Amino acid sequence: MILPLPQSADDAERVALPRDVLRVAAGGMDVRAVADLVSRAFGIRLIADEDAPHVVLERGAVTAPTPVGAEPRPMPAAAEPEAYEIRVAGERLVVTGAGDEAFFRALVTVATLTAHGRPVPRIGDHPRFSWRGLSLDIVRRWYPVEEIRRIVDLLALHKLNVLHLHLTDSQAWRFAVPGYDALTPCDAHLTGEELSGLVAYARERHVTVVPELDLPGHVAETVSAAGVDVVTGPHPVLRYVEWGAEGVADLVRAALAELASRCDSPYLHIGGDEAFGDPHESYNAFVVEAVAAVRALGRRVVGWQETSRSGALTPQDLGQLWIAERDRFDPVKARDEMPEAYHPFIPLLAETFAESVGDAVRLGAAGIPTIVSSSDPLYLDRKPVESSVDPAQTKLLERLGFPNYERTSSTDVLRWEPTAQDDIVAAGIRVAGVEAALWAETITSLDDAATLLLPRLAFVAQRAWGAERVDEAVATAAARAYSDAWTRLGFGSFYRSAEVFS
């Protein structure tokens, strides 16, 4: 059992391999990264052995559909398809693929099935979407580098290939920018060397790091420490930066240049969400300049859906849709839930979110490919509606998970189809990929993160890689088989959903 499920599997021929060691005739592939992953996840020793292999890797073309959407990988990796085939040859397996990434995916499949006690059948496999990611908020809860590496391992285990790092917000600035030491007054940030090392670690596991610099909202409190002029809107908490203000352009260009020098993604994310209080003209001008700054670095732009209002994005860039119909702003509910001091700007929030209805239309009309991160079902900090088979976890959800979201089932994403989502269909949006998000307002530890990440993230991987139709019973059974692997990787506090584990 494996998630995502292979596109095709033929049990007429299959072979059982030993569960302790996997010998691979590597054909020139450096197997160290995949060996490290399967050792951590399954306790299997994967070693190169040209003389008595269990698995033989052969470079060759594999017939498979071209994946849908935007390519997140840099060259030359972007030129190599991920599709692979596994066939049985006596007591061995022969893997065919175009290159190392296809071999990596295939070896993870072989190791997973072997660890789960399953013979390996003939398999034909390829991704449905090119962009299959997780957006990780490392601002509101700081993740040390080693924890981020464990998350990279988890992504690679489930054939997800993008780690979108949310690096800046009102609470903190999480990466070093030369000449701006005041942005990072404490140790809880990534140095340049640490960011480069993380990118290299992810690259070896065929995960691309896409960094996000979230502006012009969501950042006033942190940039003001660096001597940057900040504008206060009609309420003291509504603060933002203007491109023409003292120090802003220099800081943004320096920060983007640092990210471009450390990260090899073809894309840089400029944020652009929830710039409450920022007048339209000021906001649009900022986005136009930020887009130009990214282009000057030879990269393309990703922006949250609000950036579509600026008219600066082109079909070479990417939008990112996040506001789901279920979660649209309700001013009556907000008045009941928000402190009285915040009531004066509820009408402004309502106006801002009302405009979001047009974002999908703008993205579709402009032909801008769009990453689907709709908060329902892809925000993983949404509390599960079903209980856990562990009563302590059910109790934990009183604290953990964003309180304002309506609860939904952990398996909802299996019944969701991105290309059939109402706003996407109505606007004629070109889907660029699928990306879940883990926001960290309530997270205090990696254990908390594990409870929110899993099993939902594995089901997201199924929707992003696997076929449009999925047998829910098969997918949930496959998720159960990962209990040991998730625990070994450091995610032993995964949610024991009664829908999955009872």
Question: Any overview of this molecule?
Answer:
This protein has 502 residues and is of the alpha/beta class. The chain has two domains: 8-125, Chitobiase, domain 2; 131-501, TIM Barrel (Alpha-Beta Barrel), CATH 3.20.20. 33% of the residues lie in helices and 17% in strands. The protein has helices spanning 32-42, 100-115, 145-157, 192-204, 220-223, 248-262, 280-296, 331-337, 346-355, 359-365, 375-378, 391-396, 422-427, 446-453, 456-465, 472-480, 483-488, 498-501; strands spanning 8-15, 21-25, 45-48, 55-59, 84-89, 92-97, 120-125, 131-137, 162-166, 208-212, 231-232, 239-240, 267-269, 300-304, 318-321, 370-372, 431-438. The strands form three sheets. The chain has an eight-stranded parallel sheet. It has a seven-stranded mixed sheet with strand order 1-7-5-6-4-2-3. The chain is globular. The model has no long low-confidence stretch (mean pLDDT 95).
Could you list some keywords that capture this structure?
single chain; 502 residues; alpha/beta; Chitobiase, domain 2; TIM Barrel; 2 domains
